[in-house]
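DUF1624 domain-containing protein: structure tokens wanted.
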Amino acid sequence: MQPTSTPHPHSPNRDTHRSVSTSRLLSLDTFRGITVAAMILVNNPGDWGHIYAPLGHAHWHGWTPTDLIFPFFLFIVGVSISYALQNKDRAGLAGKIMKRSLILFSLGLFLNLFSKFDFTTVRIPGVLQRIALVYLACSLIYIKTDTRTQGWLVGVLLVGYWLLMSFIPVPDFGPANLEAETNLGAWLDRTLLGGHLWKTSKIWDPEGLLSTLPAIATGLSGILAGTLLKSSRPEAEKAVWLFVAGCFSLLGAYIWNGFFPINKSLWTSSFVLLTSGLALQGLALCYWLIDVQGYKKWTKPFVAFGVNAITVFFLSGLIPRILNMIKVQQPDGSEIGAKEWLYQTFFVPYFESPYNASLAGALTFVLIWFVILGWMYQQKIIIKV
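Answer:
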């Protein structure tokens, strides 16, 4: 998805760095890059047993900074859709959308299969799979409906999901509830995908089928934000409206939280309002600083992440799996994976706190990708999925 926009004038005293293509919205690439870099950081600690609380997900109800990352990305997918598809020839566009969605879904399934390739127990849902489904639904909605309809659909999806989860009895269990193993979404996942769910739980999935509905609302909120950014309003005014919309979304989230708690694994409607509200404010800040005020010099490392977001996410998930296949013999005769050996050799001995060692390992992994992606950006290498 390649967003397009008219380059904004800026003071000659400020940096004139631009994205690989001047047609891209630099603030969007930057916001995407920050989000993806954060995603890689939290997904690759040195030791999963020792992570600081903000770098882990909330146990159930509630939220941490880590819980914001995935919905931010889906929000950005929505913004990108509004730019990428605005002037496309509608003939055959639906087929291209479905093809791209299939590729994204297949990449996610490949990661889940690697390296055992056991189709009998492979997890079918996943992060890339959810991105694929949200992209598919939001893109088709965008090319088939107007802005008013898209806004109504956000409301219908959020209210409808709340009604389903809060009032529909769960078959074979009883009353509606929001517990991990007995809610309606978990029952649906077991019924349709039994044996192909998240290996940690095996009987429910944080990227399950039913919770994809409010995730689509997250993507649609991004589309609405993108529509505002493309409007003829003055640039500073657009930044203000994005921020104000974020404030109203946050207010709605905390009101709804009283009876439909904020929960990332369930992707509750209050969670959508919370994360979309914060994403609106984050994008407003980036847009105002970068595209309105023209402060662009600091963006380059993050833009390098943003323009190859899917590529780095896929490879950052694949490479650790490959390293774990390489076995290193220990002095006692046992074997450990190369990833674990690198961590035990180059990080653990130099930090008194295992939490600091784990964080250092994650930061190093991100910095390595900064170097790789920075080189790709300089060479104008953008891998489109």
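Residues 1-43+299-385 form one domain. The radius of gyration is 21 Å.

Cheers.
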